[in-house]
Design brief:
Structural class: alpha+beta
Strand order of the largest sheet: 2-1-5
Number of helices: 5
Order of helices and strands: HHHEEHHEEE
Distance between the termini: 108 Å
Shape: elongated
Oligomer: single chain
Number of strands: 5
Amino acid sequence: MKSSWIIFFFPVVFTSCQWMSAQLPNEQELLEEELNKIDWTKVDTYPSVASCDSIFDETARKTCFFDYITAALEENLRVDTLRGTFATLDTLKVLVTIQADAQVSLSLYQLNDSLKQQLKSVDSLLVEKSKKFHELSPATKRGVPVTSQFVLPLVLHKQ
């Protein structure tokens, strides 16, 4: 009887350890699963300026930032005369790119036929104006600064 217990109990003891051991998940699979969960089209915090940092509501902070950058661009473009350049155009669509290192680049977005003739003058003006935005903080995703882009409609005031 003892030998039959040993024959039965001996294999159970050695194979039961394998049932208890936990399988370690594959690191690459975990990484891919986590990356697939992230929505890369949205940021956790939008770009900001010092005057908007004290606002805690995200939508209000976003509105504050867009109001600031729109007003700053309109003011800069008002100082540089574009009066005679655009007789019929009253709105420019500007693609604003804020890099992770807080560098700003501005370019025209969706060019109209009337705008293609003045492309070089407006584009060089936007490049010059992008250098004036030095106090911006970039958008973040999970605490890491990321590049963000948005289209900003600028209303040209005819003088």
